[in-house]
């Protein structure tokens, strides 16, 4: 291994350690055309193996890395890969670090989650199990008002709260049983205050 490549051994080891066991990290010596370091070798390659293919003129590549790109291992694993070109002080390519990520475990998990979360297969919500859905509706209506005013709930003044109560009345929220107590807790006001505001708007 060229001495200029030795500092990159720790980098390869760290990447392999972080993403174990799904990442293989391979470092090639371009001058020797051999594999000089490998971490998590799921491709069954070993140090000293020849490079798998001849490389084109790397001097024509301006970037120091290529990818990510898709590839398939000799064992048929689907991989997402990126190759890093290591250069010497004269910008001459002397090494290449290939990071191969086995995407099959993630793809399997994704397919399982996609099936589990498939919206079209979901049955309608049984109302008997969702007796508190009126709270969600109330919260959504309050959020609608806050968004229209571009203000946070914590920033409401007394006049703002009164205006919000009037808005909720116009949306039919107070036709919901027991909603007054809930709105009192949300706005931090008394029931008497709510009823006074409602009395004023209803009269």
TrEMBL record:
InterPro entries: DauR-like, DauR-like_HTH, YheO. Residues 5-108 form the YheO-like domain. It holds the Pfam family HTH_22. Residues 139-199 form the Transcriptional regulator DauR-like HTH domain. It comes from the Bacteria. This is Regulatory protein. It comes from Sulfurospirillum halorespirans DSM 13726.
């Amino acid at each position: 291994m060229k001495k200029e490549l030795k500092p990159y051994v720790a980098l390869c080891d760290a990447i392999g350690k972080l993403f174990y066991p799904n990442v293989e990290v391979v470092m090639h010596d371009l001058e020797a055309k051999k594999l000089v370091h490998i971490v998590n070798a799921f491709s069954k390659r070993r140090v000293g193996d020849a490079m798998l293919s001849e490389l084109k003129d790397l001097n024509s590549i301006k970037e120091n890395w290529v990818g990510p790109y898709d590839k398939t291992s000799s064992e048929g694993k689907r991989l997402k890969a990126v190759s890093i070109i290591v250069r010497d002080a004269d910008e001459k390519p002397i090494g290449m670090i290939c990071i191969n990520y086995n995407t099959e475990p993630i793809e399997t998990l994704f397919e399982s989650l996609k099936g589990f979360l498939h919206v079209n297969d979901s049955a309608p919500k049984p109302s008997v199990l969702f007796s508190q859905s009126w709270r969600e509706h109330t919260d959504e209506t309050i959020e609608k008002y806050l968004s229209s005013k571009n203000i946070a709930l914590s920033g409401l003044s007394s006049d703002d709260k009164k205006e919000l109560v009037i808005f909720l009345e116009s949306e039919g929220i107070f036709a919901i049983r027991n909603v007054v107590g809930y709105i009192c807790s949300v706005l931090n006001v008394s029931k008497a205050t709510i009823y006074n505001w409602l009395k004023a708007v209803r009269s």
